[in-house]
Amino acid sequence: MKVADPTTSIEPLLHYFDRLIPLSKEEKELVTAKFHHRLYRKKQYVLQEGNVCTHIYFVIRGCLRMYKIDEQGGLHILQFATENWWVNDLGSFHGVRPSALNIDALEDTVVLQISRDDLISLYTQAPKFDRIFRVLMENSFVRLQDRLLQTISSTAEERYQSFIDVYPHLVNRLSQVQIASFLGITPEFLSRLRNKRSKGV
Q1: At what angle do helices 11-20 and 25-34 cross, to 10 degrees?
Q2: Helix 25-34 with 128-153: angle, nearest 10 deg
Q3: Are 104 and 49 a contacting pair, CB within 8 Å?
């Protein structure tokens, strides 16, 4: 039996939707027509600050990061997106306004992306997707709320443990600088934290 290439197949996304709400044959055909594969090479921008975010991205393979560079040149990573994760700047996408964020590829990354016009068309042709994307946005909001709460109420060690729990597959895939930026600590402090944990202190 021939196995579909996940980098050119729509199957990973259909499987993702099916786990939320089963799709009919016609709805699967709509997804196939509206979502398009795209390869972003390592370090390539998916979205640059100042541009309007015009698509929503579902990662098939690879890793994207969404981040902000502050006026002092400091890097602040808001999100990593790996296989079966979604990423976009919701405020820019829905408000049709310039983004304050950047999204780029940390690895060669294949996504399935849908434009705003195609998403609206999808809602009109199959209202079930209005419900599916509402659930996705609610999940995204809950994650953001949890992250904000953790940032203001947890120690660096607790945030690092949470990172390991949520992203166990990324611990050896990301650099120390990237993980430290996500946690809001310096790479040197993260190094000391890791040494302390490895010694069981």
Answers
A1: 130
A2: 60
A3: no
pLDDT per residue as tens digits for the range 91-125: 999 999 999 999 999 999 999 999 999 999 999 99
Q: What are the two backbone dihedrals, phi and then psi, of residue 11, each rounded to the nearest 5 degrees?
A: -55, -45
Beta bridge partners of 86: 58
8 Å CB contact between 147 and 180? no
Query: How many whole angstroms separate alpha carbon 67 and alpha carbon 78?
Result: 5
Instruction: With 0.85 as the threshold, say if the pTM is over it.
Output: yes
Cβ-Cβ contacts under 8 Å for 190 (sequence gap 6 or more) = 160, 176, 179, 180, 183
Separation CA 165–CA 86 (nearest Å): 19
Q: What 3-state DSSP class applies to 53?
A: coil
In this structure, what DSSP letter does residue 43 have?
T
Quote the radius of gyration of the chain (alpha carbons, Å): 18
Q: How confident is the model at residue 167 (pLDDT cuts 50, 70, 90)?
A: confident
Residue type, 16: Y
